[in-house]
Amino acid sequence: MSHSSLILPAPPERYPWRRRWLGTIEYWVAQMLFWGLLAVFMISTNDADPKKTETEAEVRLAIVVVVCIGVAITHLLRIGMLALRARVRSWLTFFGGASLLNLALALAYMGTLWWLGAVFAAEAMLEPDGLPPTLGDYLKGVGFFFALLSVWTGFYLGYCCYRGYREGVIDRLRLQAAVKEAELRTLKAQVNPHFLFNSLNTLRSMLPAELDRPREAVTLLAELLRATLTLGERATVSVTEELETVRNYLALEQLRFEQRLRVQAHVDSAASHLPVPPFLLQTLVENAVKFGVGSRREGGEVTYEVMLCDAILLLRVTNSGRLGAKSESTGLGLANARARLLHLFGPEASLTLAQASADLVVAEARIPVPVSITPST
């Protein structure tokens, strides 16, 4: 299920288990404020009641019990709300589920209070005429706590909407900063490109014809530079164009590593026309070569795959090696790739890097494909 289709999405990356089960400092401040105000209201109401029969100590103890159970109940309500937010895709279903959750917790809340009263304060539970409370009294209590929990739910959802809006603004600002930074790097790379091309052509012409490998290296480098200057200006390129860049890069690196670099490719022809961010697959392959082959004396194997699976374009690169090994990687390339995927394809697109086995690292990019451009079967 995609995050974009959820109501107030609560993905695991923003709600890890500790935050999901324990809550944040802001959440507990809101809890204490809500129940503290309710306790003050209950105390003032009781003090103004001329018919009260309980002592002040008994009233204070009862209010403390009500508040403590209320905090526990609303904390369970928050966990239930997070579960709803992670699964429900329509407002109608969401409010229906929230209402049922509020009703169930109100029944449990009132039932707990009645049980505690029957066990520890049976006389205080009696009506003024000496009769025990009725089912109607119980249902009135349930209705009151249902309304109270509904108010709490409203405040909670309002805060979630505000926080989601604020985080959305922050994400957009971060993305804009990343785009500006990428544009600046592109401008720096494009300083006098004709001079760079002319220099490479001059260098190639100076190499003797019998030096095939150096001449091929310069040619491949010129092709990569051409791709950087032309494809880099576009928001997306076709898979075919991206694969050409990847092949030129790998051919250049195989001149360098020779037998230490072993390459396998699996490409689904049905995906050849689909759009991808320029240099996305090339970045994954470059990381695989740099950190999975270049850092190992015996070299390693790099496999890249391009597949179309259920309206998802899958770009997968596997290489020998281990994550966490000492390297000079800053993670900037992957961070920029994730930012571009989010900007171009929305939150349904993803880029992950994982240790698949003891000596195998897998980088995987998933890009949603619009139904209008998905090839028919």
Count of extended strands:
7
The helix-and-strand class reads: alpha+beta
What percentage of the residues does DSSP assign to strands (E)? 5-15%
- Whole-number average pLDDT? 79
Neighbour order of strands in the largest sheet: 2-4-5-7-6
Low-confidence stretches are 1-5
User: In which range does the helix fraction lie?
Assistant: 55-70%
**What is the chain-wise order of helices and strands?**
HHHHHHHEHEEHEEHEE
Radius of gyration of CA atoms, rounded to a whole number: 32 Å
General form: elongated
Distance between the termini: 23 Å
Q: What's the tally of helices? A: 10
How many domain modules? Answer: 2
Largest sheet: 5 strands, mixed
In short:
With 377 residues, the protein is an alpha+beta fold. The protein has helices at residues 17-22, 25-47, 56-85, 91-120, 135-189, 193-206, 212-230, 239-257, 280-292, 332-345; strands at residues 237-238, 261-267, 275-276, 300-309, 312-320, 350-357, 360-368.
